[in-house]
Every structure is written in structure tokens, then in C-alpha cells.
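Holo prediction. Input below; ligand is calcium ion.
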Amino acid sequence: MNAALDDTHNPALQSWVASANAPDTDFPIQNLPFGRFRTEAEPDWRIGVAIGNQVLDLRAAKLIDSSDMNRLMRLLPGVRRSVRQAISEGLRVGSAQQAVFKAALHAQSDVAMGLPCQIGDYTDFYTSVHHATTIGKQLRPDNPLLPNYKWVPIGYHGRASSIIPSGQGFRRPKGQTKAPDQDAPTLGPCRRLDYELELAMLVGRPNALGEPIAMADAEDHVFGVSLFNDWSARDIQAWEYQPLGPFLSKNFASTLSPWVVTLDALAPFRVPFTRPAGDPEPLAYLDAPANRAQGAISIELEVWLQTAQMRAAGHAGDRISRSNYRDAYWTVAQLVAHHTVNGCNLRAGDLLGSGTLSGPEPAQGGSLMELSAGGKKPFALSSGETRAWLEDGDTIILRGYCQQPGFRRIGFGECRGTVLPA
Ligand code: CA
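Structure of the complex:
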């Protein structure tokens, strides 16, 4: 486990980039998330670090000699931490490198952000027991949680080609659906379009095929965490998912936020991994002292919905739910250890989705399927509109942040996507 505190987490650190010292910024000097950006003048992707409302071009600042994010993600944890240390020192008030770094800054408003890296394989897990139970109740009222749930970190292999950067719209998918009172399915636009509030763990260090990653080493293989929206077509899913699971209901678009908050930056926000009384303890390959002590991460998550009508009126949208990643049933380390226990090899840039992160309360549902009880209970928005499912023109914005007494608040930025007509 690498949740070690060092002087880059010191809450007293101030940056010569004034906007990084604002109390409400997501990107103070204690955060330093990585992303890829480009400018109109130079259209090739470059690696940047967010600082306040600026982005630091790492190559121009002479901190690295490449624009290959996947290569940077593969760095040994010690080397990666030394890069973080150098960025932190250069951005601190009084740094001797201020002039060189200042010449490597761009306003975030002047650059375009892309996917943070080249995404390899994409696996989606199902780590919220609250989500699994609520959805299970809709499908199987007598037997909501299947017997493997508390033993196996459930997951399936998704599709990476349709992972899109925050800000990009996507078309409402078409597909086969069949109403219960119909004899045959029809092809048409999805009528039950949903979002899923998730986190994406981006793999850094690879493992060789045939060599499982032990719990004690698992976090050394994870570069960091971004916000992730796994858009879902519930009517297509309901018809297609048996017996092999979701297919076209999930692979038309998934939106990833541009900034990867490193596990190093998240060190102050670690919390114990616990199980409710009476639940089984994880098998030995999913257990480790460090995981018990600090395997979970407290990340506050929010979902905002802005309809087209709200946008036209200059309304920022309604916050429709909140949850916290600490309530997940399985930790980051357990996902890595489980994924590789059979010898499966992970590669830099592989994406592990957390699954929908719903909290224990009904209002903490991480999807409309939960918030509208499968579409049966549409809910009201502050604009006077109602929603059971997403309408064309709706924008979903995911936000995340960490706060802990004695540490600087850090944030994830936002993960934004808009539904376009079919
Ligand atoms: Ca999902």
C-alpha cells in the first residue's frame, strides 16, 4: 500500500499561482492531478497538471521529456512520487523555478482537455452493495443480492473504444427493446436512458501474464482515479442481458473526466475498510492488514442534472444525489488483486470502473433507475420539470471532492456529458 503522507500534503503549502490558494478550488498545490491538453496553436496532446485555474505543461517545465501519458503512468511508484515532489516544489511560493514554470502555464479556459491517457481494456465492477441490493430488489424482490456478491468482486469486460472525454455529447442509442405485453421486440431509440455515477481507477504499472498481483502490492499498480459516467440504456439492457450480461446497452458511450487524481494525492483521505457485522470476511487473497487499516477512500460524490430548459435560462442545474466512495463494498486494492488472481495481465491505461456508487439511503442512488424506482416514480426538478429517465438535451455533471480536518480540500473537477437526439 502506498498511502504515505509527505510534505506535498502539508495543508500550509501555498502556491505562487494565486488561484490555487482559493479555498474553493479543486486544484490546490496539494492535489496536482494529471491530464492531457492541447491548444489551438499546437494540436498534439501534451501532459499537464492542474494548478488552480491553470495547467502546467510538464514537458515545457522540463520535468519530463515525453508527451506519452501511458509511459508516465508506468513509472515505478518511487519515481512517480519524485515527479510529484518536483512539481510541488516548483509551484510553491518562493520556488527558484518560478520563472521556468510560469512560462509553461496555460489558463485552463484556453486549452482543450482530452481523455487523460490512451485507454486500454475496460472492466466495470459492481462494488456498491447498496446499488446491487436496490437493483436486485427491482428484478428479484425475494432474493435481491445474489449469493456470490459478498465473496466475489463482481465485474464484466466493457468496451474502451466508446469512452469519451468530458464535454463531448453522444447520441441517444437505438436498439432492440421489448415491452412485457408485446410478442416481439422492435428497433428504436432508447426510452429509458440513464447515467451511472462511478469512479475510474486507471492502471499504471503492468503485471506479466500469469503473475497475480498480491494485495500488498496492488495499489502500486494504480496510477489514480477519475470520475466516470457509464451511460446505460435500461430498456435495451432488460431485453438483452440474459444470459451473458449487458452488451449494446452499455457500450454506446461512457464519459471520463480529464483529470486523474493520483493515489498519492488521496493519501490523507484514506479510511478503514470494514464489513457490516455478520458479513463474511474476504478470502485471504483479498485481505491485507493495510487494506483493513486504510483500504477505503473517502470521496464525496455529487450528480447534477441540467436540462435544456435550465441551460436556456442560465440555471446551473439541480444536484440530484450525493454519495461517498467509502461506502463501496470492495476497495481499489481488492479489485486489482481479484482481477489478476487468475493470472490476467493489466496494462498501463487499463480502466477499472467502480460500478454505480450508491449510498445507503434511497436519496443516494447513483442512477435514475434507483432515484425514480425503475421509472415508476418520476421526481420534480426546481425548474418545474420532472424526470424518470434522461431526455434529449439533458446534461449530467459528476463532481467529486475530498475533505478531512487537518488537510486541504482537493477536488476532481467535473465529468460532463449531454444527451443528443437519436
Ligand atoms: Ca456500470
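DSSP finds ten helices and 26 strands in the chain. That is the main takeaway for now.
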